[in-house]
């Protein structure tokens, strides 16, 4: 079975890169590594590259991270989990002696025979072809995003070309979507523009590598921090979210969303008008409405159910929709009671995303006043997980949630009947 070191060596050889060239390219892109470190990864002497380094190596060598760590033949369903774990076994074998590897291969062969599986094929010649050219929509979306980042960094075209080396990229042609820069060039541009947050860098690079089609959140009018959050949300398999002032956007009716945006101002979503901001909220909800296996676990404060930001008829319709959502098998809705709450976190609203990829860690998002803050530090993300866990064990149960929603609905209906 090909491990990470073997696949890295194969990719370097097939793409015609030396370790020094890769180290130089990644360092220029803002991920400083040495030629010696690349050599150690290539020979299996180092086996624990960070996800940032893995992504940068994959970008430079024009392969996926999954292929690099050995999960390129994943299937759907429960088989995927098994194959991801198998890929991780291959990655953890890097650095073992030849004698230990021989023993490991023997154990794997015996296990495959015992389970009636065919002999493991040699995958070392299966390196993917270099990435196909980007489509027109991908080039234009990438160009507009890079154009916006350059303007935000207050840099002229001449300053950027000087920073990355004249001739490295035709900046006007890139920004107009006429040509697609190499992913490693995009890495360097992001470094020049001061884009240091890993999720934002990966959001832009996933488009540069052609790993996804251009989406609604790639529009230039959507701020890059917000687009990154939307992209993460679209890929998440489990979404945990806590809101203490409004109904979570994923569960809002159009009328309620309009009222909430009017209260906060459309600028909180980077938009100039309420209509534009509402369109973003509704576009987000498509991911939850599709049958794609995503699970939403939402916790709201009880005050959300009685806060008057809309007329009673709109509030009544919102309560009906919450009851409908609470009946869905992929939605778990719970309420923090106003009377004698057992736990109330010292924070505003926040969201946690979990992904299907075995090598991708959870990401937290703190919803701030003017923008969202993406949290990737393991310790900080764990703190949000602990807060959500404490909330979850002290909120209403599923049956109690229905009772509470219906109680608020009855209260509002009686007031309308008077």
Features:
single chain; 418 residues; 434 Repressor (Amino-terminal Domain); Endonuclease, Chain A; globular
Helix/sheet category? alpha/beta
Mean of residue pLDDT values: 84
Strand order within the widest beta sheet? 3-2-1-4-5-6
Secondary-structure element order, N to C: HHHHHHHHHHHHHEHHEHHEEEEHH
| Topology, number of strands | 6
Low-confidence stretches at least 5 residues in length (pLDDT < 50)? 72-85, 121-125
Work out the helix count.
19
Percent strand equals: 5-15%
Q: Which CATH class of the largest domain is shown?
A: Alpha Beta
Query: What's the architecture of the largest domain, going by CATH?
Result: 2-Layer Sandwich
Helical coverage, percent range? 40-55%
Distance between the termini: 74 Å
Query: What shape does the CA trace take?
Result: globular
Domain HTH cro/C1-type: 33-68
Protein name: HTH cro/C1-type domain-containing protein
Region (Disordered): 114-136
InterPro entries: Cro/C1-type_HTH, DUF5753, Lambda_DNA-bd_dom_sf
What does this structure look like?
By secondary structure, the protein is an alpha/beta fold. 54% of the residues lie in helices and 8% in strands. It has helices spanning 4-15, 19-28, 35-43, 51-61, 65-69, 78-92, 98-114, 136-152, 157-164, 171-175, 183-192, 198-208, 224-235, 254-264, 274-289, 303-306, 312-326, 378-394, 398-417, and strands at residues 238-243, 295-301, 331-336, 350-354, 363-367, 372-375. It has a 6-stranded mixed sheet with strand order 3-2-1-4-5-6, sandwiched between helices. A hairpin with a 4-residue loop joins strand 5 (363-367) and strand 6. The chain is globular, with a radius of gyration of 25 Å.
């Amino acid at each position: 079975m090909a491990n990470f070191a073997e696949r890295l060596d194969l990719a370097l050889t097939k793409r015609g890169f030396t370790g020094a060239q890769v180290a130089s390219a990644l360092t220029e892109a803002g991920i400083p590594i040495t030629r010696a470190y690349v050599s150690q990864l290539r020979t299996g002497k180092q086996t624990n590259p960070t996800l940032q380094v893995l992504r940068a190596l994959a970008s430079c060598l024009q392969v996926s991270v999954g292929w690099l760590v050995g999960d390129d033949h994943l299937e759907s369903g429960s088989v995927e989990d098994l194959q991801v774990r198998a890929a991780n076994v291959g990655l953890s074998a890097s650095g073992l002696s030849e004698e230990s590897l021989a023993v490991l291969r023997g154990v794997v062969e015996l296990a495959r025979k015992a389970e009636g599986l065919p002999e493991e094929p040699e995958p070392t010649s299966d390196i993917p072809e270099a990435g196909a050219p980007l489509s027109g929509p991908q080039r234009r979306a990438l160009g507009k995003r890079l154009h916006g980042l350059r303007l935000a960094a207050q840099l002229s075209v001449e300053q950027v070309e000087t920073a990355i080396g004249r001739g490295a990229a035709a900046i006007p042609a890139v920004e107009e979507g006429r040509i697609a820069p190499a992913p490693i060039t995009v890495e360097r541009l992001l470094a020049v523009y001061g884009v240091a947050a890993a999720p934002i860098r990966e959001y832009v690079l996933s488009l540069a590598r052609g790993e996804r089609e251009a989406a609604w959140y790639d529009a230039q009018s959507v701020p890059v921090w917000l687009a990154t959050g939307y992209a993460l949300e679209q890929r998440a398999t489990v979404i945990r979210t806590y809101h203490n002032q409004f109904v979570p956007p994923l569960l809002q009716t159009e009328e309620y969303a309009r009222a909430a945006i009017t209260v906060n101002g459309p600028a909180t979503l980077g938009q100039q008008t309420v209509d534009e901001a509402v369109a973003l909220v509704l576009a987000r909800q498509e991911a939850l409405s599709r049958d794609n296996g995503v699970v939403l676990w939402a916790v709201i404060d009880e005050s959300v159910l009685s806060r008057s930001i809309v007329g009673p008829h709109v509030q009544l319709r919102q309560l009906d929709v919450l009851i409908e959502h609470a009946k869905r098998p992929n939605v778990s809705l719970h309420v923090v009671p106003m009377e004698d709450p057992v736990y109330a976190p010292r924070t505003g609203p926040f969201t946690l995303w979990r992904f299907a990829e075995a090598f991708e860690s959870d990401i937290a998002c703190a919803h701030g006043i003017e923008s969202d803050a993406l949290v990737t530090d393991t310790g900080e993300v764990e703190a949000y997980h602990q807060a959500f866990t404490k909330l979850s064990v002290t909120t209403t149960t599923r049956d109690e949630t229905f009772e509470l929603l219906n109680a608020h609905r009855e209260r509002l209906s009686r007031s309308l009947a008077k």
